[in-house]
Amino acid sequence: MTTNLFFGTLKDEKSAVALKHFALKKQIVYNIYKDGPLSNLAISEFTKISLPTVTRLLEDLFQSNILRQEGVGKSFGGRRPILYGIEPNAAYTLGIDISLSYFTIGIINMKGQFAGEVVNVELPIENSLSYLEKVYEESQKVIKQSGVPAEKIIGVGNSVPGLLNPANGRTLSLFTFSNKPVRALLAAKFGIPVFLDNDARLAVLGEHYFGDIREKKNVICLNVGEGIGLGLSIVKKIANLHNANIAVDSNDQSTTFTVKFQGGDCPYLEISHRGQTP
């Protein structure tokens, strides 16, 4: 039986019970990844799965080295519950950030920690297959230097500038040399799932899931990169339209842009972006 708990499907086992347990395990892993460490009781309440089933599936995931025990929780009468968290090195993802004049490659584990060095490759972007092949070759070097087993890398996250359709992985302003979407071309090279989206959208998602805006409902992201001039111009127009203020605070290490909205439907909203000072 072949499985990939994170993105794959059961290939050999077709029974309804096995498929159901596979789906439940993915649900448990997601909840622990997002909100863990969690006890079996907390997971049962989150997922609406019965406590005996959760306990059995947790043991399976623990024995498979996908989860680990991370201490004990509070007791509500009786024995203190074991807390389960993600095993950091159970799997890895490869991140590739493509900019106009360079691209960046890094590998992270299931705790969001970098494995090995984050590498910048100076290479102006080109609308060609040879450019994508260069991205792939440099990625293989990073993987080899990191010491991470290639089979443990379960997916590639790729950010690119410009217009694209994340549903089909087709760029509208870059990599138009082929009839195939760029995501399909990269997936064929890497042999694992590739996820492709705009760099600004992925910056928002990253901050939403792992950064300082996890509890925020309404957020504007200012992606300060090689397109900073246009980005600041657009934000300034929005700020003027809604009677907002823009403040800039800079030191030797970082520059922070803060937009403050007041009045109307949004009595007070503060949005910040911090980036490295050139």
Query: Which structural class should the secondary elements be placed in?
Result: alpha+beta
Stretches where pLDDT falls below 50 for ≥5 residues?
A: 264-278
Radius of gyration (Å): 22 Å
Lateral arrangement of strands in the main beta sheet: 6-5-4-7-10
Overall average residue pLDDT: 80
N-to-C order of helices and strands:
HEHHEEEEEHEEEHEHHEEE
Specify the biggest β-sheet: 5 strands, mixed
Percent of residues in β-strands: 25-35%
Cα distance spanning the termini: 52 Å
Q: Residue share in helices? A: 25-40%
Features:
278 residues, alpha+beta, 3-stranded antiparallel sheet, 26% strand, 5-stranded mixed sheet
Q: Quick recap of the structure?
A:
The protein has 278 residues and is α+β, with helices and mostly antiparallel strands. The protein contains 7 helices and 13 strands.
Describe this protein's structure.
This protein has 278 residues and is of the alpha+beta class. Helix content is 34%, strand content 26%. It is built from seven helices and 13 strands. The chain has helices at residues 16-35, 40-47, 51-63, 129-146, 182-190, 199-210, 228-241; strands spanning 38-39, 67-72, 82-86, 92-98, 102-109, 119-122, 153-160, 164-165, 170-171, 194-198, 245-250, 254-262, 268-276. Strands 6-5-4-7-10 form a five-stranded mixed sheet. It has a three-stranded antiparallel sheet with strand order 1-3-2. It is globular. Mean pLDDT is 80; it is low at 264-278.
